[in-house]
Amino acid sequence: MARKPSSGIVKPNFPDVQGLASQATASAGEQVKDKVDEAVVAVQHLYGRSAERARGVASEVDSLIADNPYASLGIGVAAGLLVGVLLGALIASRD
Question: Which of 50, 54, 65, 79 could be bridged to 72 by S-S, CB 3.0 to 4.6 A?
Fold first, then answer.
């Protein structure tokens, strides 16, 4: 019987390396999942605080407008006029 000539390259067989790699991947996946869960909780907390503050500000503005309707109207008109003048100047400077 004739033997096949050897190429001289020895291919090691490391079955444990694949197991270690899958464990490392699973561990990294769990760490990523834990970090994402922490981020979700933090964002939910931040959203809750922001929504609560927005409701408080809206309530204060609503009561201020109800107490001073004409002053509020004047401020709104003045703000609109100012924005209009600034936009007009910006458009005119581009031409």
Answer: 65
